[in-house]
């Protein structure tokens, strides 16, 4: 499997970033990666502007003198002829923007510098309650100078920010988020793929730190070194192909000499997400329990004891004038709930209103304050009046806050489970591994247990039975069976022997293996999967746009509706239009209207609406990854359920992809040995599976013929003809190896005997590879690629789902038709080159159908990009995997069905979530407004409205969690 070769490129967030570069090139300005000036111990960056308006040397001198005075600018060179300015500067002292502004102050125009040298950071965002919160964070980030792109995930509570490090740093980004009223912590910054954190010992002063940093920075392969004084932690960025963590630790130890000796050990930072999740759960639980401590007595005094005479009679005892014991106690107990426990709603409301938006906190604060301060008014009135009898609502505000906190607590617990699949994937890699050293004869001379993070490329790792494979690698010794189900979903263990690849995180079952590490750290397949799933969970699905649009106007609309509700009940009631029996005992029209208004405010919460899509996408992408289907974001997940036509590549997709030669013939005076030599020489440079089969067969045939000499492998003027074959000069002969189309293109005659051989094999679904030497067909190989056992079953099942299947192949029509007939596909496009495959897909799209492409090779990547949904076979090439929207990790066609079915189930779940979310509001708001009250006497008290609001968010998260029980429609069968 070649998924692990992606070298971190898959980290992109969403489909569009995989199909086009995030940053576009420009010739207006060039920026170099900072160099390190060892004399001055400072980093130097170089920036080049294209300057308009330079007419003579004096112009250049004026620019040079103006820029040369800037603190941090080390050199300025201006060319009047080319109209360019090259400035070397220290990025820690001055940024590119300030340089550009100073340059323009001299009266010249500098071209805008493009978005180059862009850094990426991931942040944990705290305090987001609904979609309007995530939009506010995005808006706040996008307004910051230097931020190029920001994506905020509500369910994941993370932000991914692309920024220009010359204009802004991560601390300023965090400040911008905090200014918007939210908390933020840095998860990762820059290229985390090749970073190691080391704990230093023996470091006593600044001189020690400078010595270590300068030594490391001058080490080949080290790109950046930073030191955290508080934790004595050294963070080193490095090139994995050149050095590694063990080498860096050794360098640090070798720097020191008596009496100053330094040592370094691996620093493993605590798992931030889990720690913060537990902290948040604990926080909401404690706040809810504290709230209950005061709310339960208030509830008893207000609603239970008065109904149980004589036990509640003491509550009616008057302290002064009309103020009773019950009122006073309710006031005293409710106040801490309102202002201490409920402080979070005030803070949230303040920040929301300051950024001119409104969220759940605004609604809760308005509702609870209306109830509390009206009740305070009643208490003051009863205290000062001898006749006033009013009804206070202290229990309303206290119970409202308690129920909302209970709902948030349950929601946080449930949301934690939505990322379970991702946590399980992350936990697959073992903590330690056995590193072995071999002598020249391949014998183990040293064995030691090390932390998995210290493994470097080309290390030899010993994996005992029952142990997990720590990194991706190649078996160099031993035989065993490896269970890859945790990554690929394939239940049956796979036999491994020398030369076979193993995947990090899989389980070695019954034999001892020595594995050479080929991919470590974030280059492993497991890390790529985790990065893809994280990117998918952060990406916003198009269907979420509906929720985003609704949330923008939702809260203001609710406030207006609540005010209208109060007016509709209060004014007609006061005017006597409504009958008096509508007003409950101990209430007046103002109080009844106020309760209806508060209920409307509270029941209509936008939280559930914001959680409807992201929670479902989180669970589905995590579940898909555990089933062997990697879905790159909400866009792919949403598009896949609309698929009506699937275009399949043939070789390596419908077929096993490992063709074998079943016959070889000679058509000329050349011997079989000569034909084999020529074919081997021409095909040796080709990566095509059929070429490899021909080369392997030719070598074996040559050996069987008893040839002792080495075959000719030197080829000149080698040329690849896409979809046709290869050609070149072998010695003094011109050789072509390929299909009939290649022969036709080079005017090589194909006689009746050759045609007969081709026709005979094509009817058997075999491909004929013709070998032409000096313009004459000298021989041919008949190649067959066995069909995947599940291919026919998958095509049949897709048909039952209402999806039509088409096959495109670079092979000839007869072979393509024979294969298609065998699997049950009716439409075949044969002899199609890579561009032709993409064109066929565009033709189908013009007919208004949503088209998916399933392929595995480099030649499939244009078609994968052109399709509405590209699905790459996991064992295929890196290019195909990057171009695709969905990756089928275990190369099983049944997962095409799984991907589409999971998409359909997820989209139906999202729609159901919207029904839950909007249903509560559509039904709850009229009931809260009192529409049923005149006819049935049923009304929704504010505390019960708060419970309904909390239940709506909880129901949406639980609805999404049901996707965890997803089962594949087609189970893997082995024959």
Automatic annotation (TrEMBL):
<dbReference type="InterPro" id="IPR006121">
    <property type="entry name" value="HMA_dom"/>
</dbReference>
<dbReference type="Pfam" id="PF00403">
    <property type="entry name" value="HMA"/>
</dbReference>
<dbReference type="InterPro" id="IPR036163">
    <property type="entry name" value="HMA_dom_sf"/>
</dbReference>
<feature type="transmembrane region" description="Helical">
    <location>
        <begin position="319"/>
        <end position="341"/>
    </location>
</feature>
<feature type="transmembrane region" description="Helical">
    <location>
        <begin position="288"/>
        <end position="307"/>
    </location>
</feature>
<dbReference type="InterPro" id="IPR008250">
    <property type="entry name" value="ATPase_P-typ_transduc_dom_A_sf"/>
</dbReference>
<keyword id="KW-1278">Translocase</keyword>
<feature type="transmembrane region" description="Helical">
    <location>
        <begin position="942"/>
        <end position="963"/>
    </location>
</feature>
<dbReference type="GO" id="GO:0016887">
    <property type="term" value="F:ATP hydrolysis activity"/>
</dbReference>
<keyword id="KW-0067">ATP-binding</keyword>
<feature type="transmembrane region" description="Helical">
    <location>
        <begin position="592"/>
        <end position="613"/>
    </location>
</feature>
<dbReference type="InterPro" id="IPR044492">
    <property type="entry name" value="P_typ_ATPase_HD_dom"/>
</dbReference>
<keyword id="KW-0677">Repeat</keyword>
<protein>
    <recommendedName>
        <fullName>P-type Cu(+) transporter</fullName>
        <ecNumber>7.2.2.8</ecNumber>
    </recommendedName>
</protein>
<feature type="transmembrane region" description="Helical">
    <location>
        <begin position="914"/>
        <end position="936"/>
    </location>
</feature>
<dbReference type="InterPro" id="IPR017969">
    <property type="entry name" value="Heavy-metal-associated_CS"/>
</dbReference>
<keyword id="KW-0479">Metal-binding</keyword>
<dbReference type="InterPro" id="IPR023214">
    <property type="entry name" value="HAD_sf"/>
</dbReference>
<dbReference type="GO" id="GO:0140581">
    <property type="term" value="F:P-type monovalent copper transporter activity"/>
</dbReference>
<keyword id="KW-0547">Nucleotide-binding</keyword>
<dbReference type="InterPro" id="IPR023298">
    <property type="entry name" value="ATPase_P-typ_TM_dom_sf"/>
</dbReference>
<dbReference type="InterPro" id="IPR018303">
    <property type="entry name" value="ATPase_P-typ_P_site"/>
</dbReference>
<feature type="transmembrane region" description="Helical">
    <location>
        <begin position="553"/>
        <end position="572"/>
    </location>
</feature>
<comment type="similarity">
    <text>Belongs to the cation transport ATPase (P-type) (TC 3.A.3) family. Type IB subfamily.</text>
</comment>
<dbReference type="GO" id="GO:0005507">
    <property type="term" value="F:copper ion binding"/>
</dbReference>
<keyword id="KW-0472">Membrane</keyword>
<dbReference type="Pfam" id="PF00702">
    <property type="entry name" value="Hydrolase"/>
</dbReference>
<dbReference type="GO" id="GO:0016020">
    <property type="term" value="C:membrane"/>
</dbReference>
<dbReference type="InterPro" id="IPR006122">
    <property type="entry name" value="HMA_Cu_ion-bd"/>
</dbReference>
<dbReference type="InterPro" id="IPR059000">
    <property type="entry name" value="ATPase_P-type_domA"/>
</dbReference>
<feature type="domain" description="HMA">
    <location>
        <begin position="45"/>
        <end position="111"/>
    </location>
</feature>
<keyword id="KW-0187">Copper transport</keyword>
<keyword id="KW-0406">Ion transport</keyword>
<dbReference type="InterPro" id="IPR027256">
    <property type="entry name" value="P-typ_ATPase_IB"/>
</dbReference>
<dbReference type="InterPro" id="IPR001757">
    <property type="entry name" value="P_typ_ATPase"/>
</dbReference>
<dbReference type="GO" id="GO:0005524">
    <property type="term" value="F:ATP binding"/>
</dbReference>
<keyword id="KW-0813">Transport</keyword>
<feature type="transmembrane region" description="Helical">
    <location>
        <begin position="392"/>
        <end position="410"/>
    </location>
</feature>
<dbReference type="Pfam" id="PF00122">
    <property type="entry name" value="E1-E2_ATPase"/>
</dbReference>
<keyword id="KW-0186">Copper</keyword>
<feature type="transmembrane region" description="Helical">
    <location>
        <begin position="362"/>
        <end position="380"/>
    </location>
</feature>
<feature type="domain" description="HMA">
    <location>
        <begin position="119"/>
        <end position="185"/>
    </location>
</feature>
